[in-house]
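Components:
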Amino acid sequence: MRKSTMIVTLVVVLLFIASWIFKTMTAPEVDSTFDALTQGFLVTFAAFLTLAIMSFLYQDNPFYKFAEHLYVGVSAAYAMTLGFWSTLVGNLFPRVSETLCGWFQVEFSGQHDWQFLIPPILGILLLMRLSPKGGWISRWALAFIVGTTAGLNLPRFLRSDFIEQISGTFLPLLVDWEGFGHFFSNLSLSASGQFVAILSNFVIVSGVICGLIYFFFSKEHKGAFGSASRYGIWILMITFGASFGYTVMGRISLLVGRLTFLMDDWLGIISG
Amino acid sequence: MRIASFGIFILLVFGCGLTALAQDDPIDMVESEIVLPAPASKVIALNHKYDIGEILDVSWESSTSDPELVFGYIIYRSEGDNKFDSVGAVLSKINSFSDEELIPGKSYNYQIGTIGASGVALSEPSEPAIPDWELFNLEMWNIALIGFIICGAVIAYIFSAKAGRKLFIRKIGGLEALEEAVGRATEMGRPILFIPGIQDMDDVQTLAAITILGKVARVVADYDSKIMMPVSRSLVMTSARETIKEAYLSAGRPDAYSDDMAYYVTDEQFGYVAAVNGLMVREKPATCLYLGAFFAESLILSETGNSIGAIQIAGTARPGQLPFFVAACDYTLIGEELFAASAYLSGDPKQLGSLKGQDLGKVVAMVAIVLGTLAATLASAWDIEIMQKFLDNVMLGIFSNH
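Structure:
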């Protein structure tokens, strides 16, 4: 370990201890010293991990590595534990075995649903991958998952992504139409006006058609077809731009959440 | 049962409140105390159509009493033994009820109780009804029609491709760069990072990513380069290992394959991102491929890839993440380009036929939109009745959820 790294590590450890002591002494509404120590440690450790992850913005460093490995290890173990207790103990055992329910102290559903034995059988087939000779058996379970997914998704996507999108585009291009004279005499850029309504519908209909043309792969995008395709990609890019700004604002609110934690819960320099 | 009891309680409280208000008028008070409302009549229970045999639809004719003196209806159910239990309650303006979670094939009778200020008047019991299930949901005929057209076209194109007919697919920019990107990584002696999204094998985008992985792994094997593939789902790891192994076998280099090429990290979204980010800055891959279903991690990954100077090719069908990939990556496969990519790269007749069939689906969509919009415009601007009928009966008949 380099000398500079050692010094930084030492400083961080000292700051951690100082923060722990301070948060323990200022812990509100605790029943015992142990509770105060625990609360002080948890707040300090959460702040340390937040700063360790944020330190990646500067460069990779030992604190980031520590936070990363801790996060990965804890989350992987948590996912496995959750899968066991919620899927096997919570869902499977109450439907297939009164004995297992007794062992794990969960309530038996009252009747055996033998169809629920199919998923664990498929799970065991997947685990056959660990066997040097029986690895090919795991493909059966995979094929079942992929085939079932495709079959279930086809009607769902046809309804939501095809039919509803098409019927949603059946829009009149001339809204509240009473002739050109009326249109020009009442021309206004008001958001609720006729001109904006017509323009809006025109952009939706032409955007959808030209967007579809962009995703048409059976013909070279040249000439008029190419122009329509370019219009389609422009519409997509403008949409992406709007979406980008909207999402970034959402991310800023997440950052504000973490900064509020650091400033309020940890340092206590602002009131929540 | 609790919901039903609660509903009855609410209706009775509501009824008592109205009764109390009506006590200003002594004549009303006397009438409400001694006269029950007229009971509901013609109670009919019918099998609910197109379910899995667990629902009966109960309907009745409303009480003929003054609507202001009828506060609602209680639905009673008997399982054939003339012992009726309440299963729900509705307000007085409603005269139907769907009884759910029944046992398929079992017979049920219903009786309706009309709630008045002075009590509940019971109707005659309905004829017995049996909940049953149907094999086909005929209300979804339009989905079947469109499905048959598109699937039929896909099958026809697959046979056509297998018969040797050359199917044209236009060039896709990002894919043209794929081989170049792998070549660059080989020249620089640095690895290629392949991220197949964070969804499982039940997501069609992950399937497309794994198909593209086959082609990428083949090029990697040919160039004797190195591929790294951390994944967030165990099933994806299994499939990825199979795919990479097959690619190395077909390249004639099975000895160069290692299970360590694809490995599981964690299911947790940001735990996975933290691990991949760390991997990127430490291993410095020359090429990063993000193909599959991505969420909030898209920008974090692609920005880190950008900071280490990697060539980045991304592809996803998630509209919310495409802007970030477009902004931070060198090439982006937008939406269906991701699915087209696997067909384009493999040249497999099945995939090419599928892609051509989907193109036919797009033609159907474009024609439908043009016809529907034209009909809506003519019907709206010039009140052409036949166009309105065409829109309502034909276009919306086919292109709407029934």
